[in-house]
């Protein structure tokens, strides 16, 4: 095997664990194919935007050479958008039918 050919490490699990205290990084954990130990990394959020751009570029290159429909990557949300928040409005009704389905 030549010295300039690097074999990539196979990742079997890639998870986002938490945000850094300053909110500028995401703490991720990776598990490799031949290890049960998770390794944790702190990755700047900008790196994920770069990764999405790279995936879109690879997808476009693959679709130019393939007749199959490409899988469209998700659009990166704005850091100001919090996808995990939503508004819930609750009103208490006295004597209301408790079995009624809430829509």
Structure characteristics:
103 residues, alpha+beta, three-stranded antiparallel sheet, 20% helix, 23% strand, extended
Ordered list of secondary-structure elements with their pairings:
Elements: E1 11-19, E2 25-32, E3 38-44, H1 45-65
Antiparallel strand pairs: 1-2, 2-3
Can you describe this structure?
The protein is of the alpha+beta class. It has one helix at 45-65; strands spanning 11-19, 25-32, 38-44. Residues 93-103 have low confidence and may be disordered.
- Outline the biggest β-sheet: 3 strands, antiparallel
Mean pLDDT: 76
Q: What structural class do the secondary elements suggest?
A: alpha+beta
Biggest sheet, strands in spatial order? 1-2-3
Number of helices: 1
Radius of gyration: 22 Å
β-strand number: 3
Shape: extended
First and last CA, distance: 63 Å
The ordered string of helix (H) and strand (E) elements is EEEH
Report strand %: 15-25%
Helix content: 10-25%
What low-confidence regions span 5 or more consecutive residues with pLDDT below 50? 93-103
Short summary of the structure?
The chain has 103 residues and is α+β, with helices and mostly antiparallel strands. The protein has one helix at residues 45-65, and strands spanning 11-19, 25-32, 38-44.
